[in-house]
Specification:
The structure holds two protein chains of two kinds.
Chain A: E1 4-13, E2 16-26, E3 31-36, H1 42-50, E4 57-62, E5 65-66, H2 70-73, E6 76-79, H3 91-102, H4 108-115, H5 131-142, E7 149-153, H6 161-176, E8 180-184, H7 188-191, E9 197-202, E10 205-210, H8 212-219, E11 223-229, H9 233-242, E12 250-254, E13 257-262, H10 264-277, E14 280-286, H11 290-298, H12 302-305
Parallel strand pairs in A: 3-8, 3-9, 6-7, 7-8
Antiparallel strand pairs in A: 1-2, 1-4, 4-5, 9-10, 11-13, 11-14, 12-13
Helix pairs in contact in A: 4-5, 8-11
Chain B: H1 2-17, H2 20-38, H3 51-74, H4 79-83, H5 86-91, H6 97-130, H7 136-165, H8 171-199, H9 209-212, H10 217-227, H11 249-273
Classes of the chains: A alpha/beta, B mainly alpha.
Amino acid sequence: MSCFRLENVSYRYDKTLVLNGVDLRLEPGEILGLFGHNGAGKTTSIKLILGLMTPTQGTVSVLDGAAGDPHVSQHIGYLPENVMFYPQLTGREILNHFARLKGASLKQVPVLLEQVGLGDAMKARVKTYSKGMRQRLGLAQALLGKPKLLMLDEPTVGLDPVATADLYRLLRKLRDEGTGIVLCSHVLPGVEPYIDRAAILTDGALKAVGDLVSLRRQANMSVTLSIEPANGSSALEKVIEASSAGNGLMIKKDNGRLQVDVRPSEKMALIQDLLNSGEVQDLGIHQPTLEDVYVHFIGSGGLAHRGGAQ
Amino acid sequence: MNSIWTIARKELSDSLRNRWLVAIALVFAVLALGIAWFGAAASGQVGYASTPATIASLASLGIFLIPLIALLLAYDAIVGEEEGGTLLLLMTYPLSRGQLLFGKFLGHGLTLAFATMIGFGVAGIAIALLVEDVAVGALAAAMFRFIVSTILLGWGFIALAYMISVRVSEKPVAAGLALGIWFFFVLVFDLMLLGILVASEGKLSPELLPWLLMLNPTDIYRLLNIVAFGEGAQLSGVLSLGADLPIGPAGMWFALVLWFVIPLTGAWALFRRRRI
């Protein structure tokens, strides 16, 4: 059973093509990061999976059923961006209300509130809550009824670093218990250690999907070696130039250290030559981060997209 | 059914919490008692005049107040959820749009019904107890008719408010349009009808004209409460057209029911087409 499966999905809003031929799936026990600039189609993809809209073309199946089917929605948890809830009600009353609608047991309400750190505030009206507290209430809401598929849109907005770490720890635990999780976020360095796979959307098309290793491979971006010379940098430079991979490498001097950008395929050969030469005091390897890969895929035009509407 | 009741229950407890229910009941009770005691003040006396006169005055004032209260209660039913971000969230729950809308209607409808029963009921009991020579049977019948028709009229305007609430995307716009509806049915419609009546100089079919009253729920409501007192009832203004209506009270009750069923169905149809 897949958590969801999008097959060749396109969606047209009025005349604009918002999504174009997207193929994407999520298996249980997996955290998928969904990334893209504003207006790339993240929200549309989420709404299609939630059954709020139907695709113009292609098929969407969720938990082996149709998106939007009540039996399916019962097993989906969703945290929308910016939900205000009902300011006059207390956190506990709100969660009770949503638990009833979801057919979930009311017993788990105080447990969930405790789990997201709202144990002391559950009897206070939501209008007194801070943004971070509302976000945590939204998260508790998404966890009602132990969902099999969890969709979180910018879950860390307004959370302090400790709460953010708690959140990710919780998500890991849920993943290990078999929940499929979709994480939409703009804070790429924050989510990088926690996602199993990333999907990058631009202009409604899926640019790349896979785990970080395979994305790096697809992007074929240089790895940066930071080398501290053992006997002066000129000797080290000679070794690098002499290396089989030495053609066209970038060498930058940076307070005594050398920085070398090398193609991933040539990395190991260069490292071997360096170690054999005995000219290396210390060696650092910097892989491209998720953010580097993301910028690579959405291209330099990425900034121009930032102004687009959701 | 369960989800409908969950939604309704929240609306009911909201209106208890924000004192809407109590406030409406209080307004109704004060209004009814005020009219009962001072309704005859214009003719130079204080005290209970008669049941028909009291009900007629109540109905005349009711048409201003009840639609206004119903519209205020309901205009933000859907658009308010959208502004708070909860509409999107609710739609991801195992809850259809119809269930949400009918749940809201049940909640708002019961709020208005309870407030009406408590407010006018208390007033009716007070009149029965305090006025010495009032015919309790006739008073109870008239009050019952008045309360039921008031509830139906209120439901009609709740449903009309929903038609706005499911269409617009901003609360102030919904509030403005709701006031427009009130203005049209309560103030403009009768003037228009009167204008048509005078301008047509009797050329319009006399069979057709009375039916035009059925296009306004507040006119049906007033007719119902006044005509019920038989031949002696005084119909003034455009309501005198109602004397020529070939349908009896049963037909008018039916029309009043249609006046909430049709707008509610319309609101449902519009809501199903709304983009979320």
